[in-house]
Request: fold
Amino acid sequence: MKLILILIVIATHSWANDANEAAFLFKQESLKRLSPSQIKENPEIYLYDQSLIRDGEGEGGIYTDTYYTKKDSFKMSIGYQTSLSLEDFAKLRVINIQIMKKIASYKDQWLAFQLQNVVGAYSTLADELEESTDPDADGFIKRGSNDQSMTLIGVGLGYRFKALTQMFDSDRVFENVHAYGNYITNLDSTTSEQYNGYGLTTEYSIERRISETLFVNLKIGYNIASVVREAKDDEKKQDRSLVFRWTTVGFDFGYYF
Reply:
């Protein structure tokens, strides 16, 4: 009986050493060099430092559930934004929907799609111009606080990381950057003219993971849009074009699948 107990102790000790050695060896490998199949075999080793989230706490301080954010593959969010300028805070309203698919398993690069509805005063989106060789040109019509209504459909790339958020000492706080190229339609309420064109959206956000599937973002965005309407007679392009720039702040709620 004593012999059996000794053998069990030796075997257990040996297994523990082997496991520790294996963990040590695995941690030497850069995550960037590993294939998704290698990570999938040992997520508790490869992903522990970078993406482990602990949920709940049971008896004796043991966590009741854990999951790895590196396993995220698809997410969707809906949000609201307004002007970053306090002076124009009530003059700009943005509702956006974003859908993102991870480009590669266990990486943090995302293929992103967005749909935005933007309603804002012209004075918030562009500056009134004072002089023109053609006072009838679109850019020189006095629009003041009259609304512009835009729809943006965009595709782009995103990246999730931790830099400034490391100061929070939390496994639930992340940063995201996104850039989109957009197709834009705009309705000018002053002239009732329809414009079409292209633009760019860039965003920086701080994400708080509420649970395995739910998250909330605080975000800042910069947008630029160049739109043009159809020509009447022999109008030049610059006389029927509008350029908008606006900076936003807001939040969104999302869900990981």
